[in-house]
Amino acid sequence: MAVHEQSHRHTGFRLPSLRRTRSAPAPEAASATTTAVRAYALASLRLLTGFVFLWAFLDKTFGFGYATPSGKGWIDGGSPTRGFLGSVAAGPLQSTFHAWAGDTWADWLFMLGLLGIGLALLTGVALRLAAVAGTVMMALMWLAEWPPARHLADGSPSMSTNPFADYHVVYALVLVALAAAGAGATWGLARIWERLPFVSRNPWLR
Predict the structure, then answer these.
(1) Could you give the CA distance from residue 135 to residue 150 in angstroms, rounded to a whole number?
(2) pLDDT tens digit string along 78-108?
(3) Are 63 and 78 in contact (CB under 8 A)?
(4) Where are the beta strands (DSSP E) in 22-77?
């Protein structure tokens, strides 16, 4: 006689599974998240770079004792360009920079450049102008330090760490990238600035 085993179903109480089914985020949500992260990253870079320029202006103006000794600030009668340009010891424009060192026009142009670029970056307005002005400033400072030189005019080592890609080049590229990406809208006043009539009529002011 054959014995058939009957299967028994257990319909009693069961604990829920601890594993959750994770659904992949929608492409639109992932794209929005990536865009937001990119905007915040660029805004952070813009603010930090703006503080670099603004701090240089404030330290050279008031002599906080960092790069500019106390009592040697612009407000105390010191020259923001005499020390730097007067100590240029390499490069094809050495004599030109020496002639500019300490001139009133050079001091004012340099300081207004630092202030304008710093405020533009911190507020997020006129980033295109800031990029142009900052690139010109960084190019002149690169020429003054002349990283390609291995030795100074007196024959001593220049201590240059890279013949081309020094921090002046990096700052210039950062300024251009921020302007090209329109990085003034996040944590900035770019949207309000661009709605102004004279700005909307002159896109180069954005």
Answers:
(1) 24
(2) 999 999 999 999 999 999 999 999 999 999 9
(3) yes
(4) none
